[in-house]
Amino acid sequence: xxxxxxxxxxxxxxxxxxxxxxxxxxxxxxxxxxxxxxxxxxxxxxxxxxxxxxxxxxxxxxxxxxxxxxxxxxxxxxxxxxxxxxxxxxxxxxxxxxxxxxxxxxxxxxxxxxxxxxxxxxxxxxxxxxxxxxxxxxxxxxxxxxxxxxxxxxxxxxxxxxxxxxxxxxxxxxxxxxxxxxxxxxxxxxxxxxxxxxxxxxxxxxxxxxxxxxxxxxxxxxxxxxxxxxx
Length: 231
Known about the structure:
two-stranded antiparallel sheet; 35% helix; 4-stranded parallel β-sheet; single chain; 2 domains; Rossmann fold
């Protein structure tokens, strides 16, 4: 309702912003969190060595790139795309993530993936909601970064419980066997895309499904992260 009545107002400060943007340039600039750990998105005092002390001790890890930590005001808004259908947030938040990724590539901190793949949604949920927020994010990032998006290559074959409130073991059981890869060309060096990472279980489950079918995942991308580390 707010987006309909105040289409040109920033959702944080209520000042005028570009139509369809949802956030003004001042709030976006003031909200820049600085360097984030590539293991858990925890804010770092300096970019090098790119991971916090806890993540440096992890033998198995896969890079996670997020625009914001979830507790950050702009990170908290990432969930509003799905929950409150605030589609005007899609463009500025994807801009922020794309800029972070381009900066990491320029510094040699992260390899550029060959393609993007969003976390799929079961068809029943897709009919109920009308859109897959993760797929929209992947398409927006693909356009900004000139990368192919392969969302049609994976489907969710059964509905799952809401992950909120489930512990790690319950989340893994909930997701077991829910993803299926559509046969086709081998996919290499994929970046998986979602809106918010909470425990990393969804990314890990999807990556495991892809690996079993001979495809490779090199990194995870999300607008915001609320976890300590992704394995």
